[in-house]
C-alpha cells in the first residue's frame, strides 16, 4: 500500500511539474514558451530572463520526469525544490502565504511532497524495478 501511495504522489507531482516546464520551454498546455516566459522573468527582475526560463523549464521537465519515474530521486527532488524556492523568493513571498493572493502556499505544498518522498524513498513501483 505504501508503494502505491508513493507512486500516486510521484506521478501527480512529477508529471504536473514536467508539464509546467513544457509550458516554459515549448509553449505547450497554454504556456508562453521561452520568449514569453523570459520576458515575464525580466519584468520581475530575474535576468537574463530567457536563460533563466530555460533553466527553470529544464529543471521542471527533467526533475518532474525523474520524480515520476522514481529514478535519481534525490536529484529530482533537488531540481524541483530549487525551482520552488526561487518561485517563492522572487514571485510569491511578498504576497503572503495564501495562493488566493498569489502567495506561496502551493509551492510549500510541492516542497513538502518532494522532500517527504525523497526522505521515504520512491517505493517499489519505479522504472528501475521494471528492469530487475
From TrEMBL:
Keywords: Cell membrane, Membrane, Transmembrane, Transmembrane helix. It comes from Fictibacillus iocasae. The lineage of its organism: Bacteria, Bacillati, Bacillota, Bacilli, Bacillales. The keyword Transmembrane applies. This is DoxX family protein. The keyword Transmembrane applies. Signal peptide: none annotated. InterPro entries: DoxX, DoxX-like_oxidoreductase. It is a multi-pass membrane protein. It is found in: Cell membrane.
Amino acid at each position: 500500500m505504501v508503494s502505491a501511495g508513493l507512486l500516486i504522489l510521484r506521478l501527480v507531482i512529477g508529471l504536473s511539474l514536467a508539464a509546467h516546464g513544457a509550458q516554459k520551454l515549448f509553449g505547450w498546455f497554454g504556456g508562453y514558451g521561452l520568449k514569453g516566459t523570459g520576458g515575464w522573468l525580466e519584468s520581475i527582475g530575474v535576468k537574463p530572463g530567457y536563460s533563466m526560463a530555460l533553466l527553470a523549464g529544464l529543471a521542471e521537465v527533467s526533475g518532474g520526469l525523474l520524480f515520476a519515474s522514481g529514478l535519481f530521486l534525490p536529484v529530482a527532488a533537488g531540481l524541483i525544490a530549487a525551482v520552488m524556492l526561487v518561485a517563492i523568493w522572487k514571485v510569491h513571498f511578498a504576497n503572503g502565504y495564501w495562493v488566493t493572493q498569489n502567495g506561496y502556499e502551493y509551492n510549500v505544498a510541492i516542497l513538502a511532497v518532494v522532500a517527504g518522498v525523497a526522505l521515504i524513498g520512491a517505493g517499489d513501483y519505479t522504472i528501475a524495478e521494471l528492469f530487475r
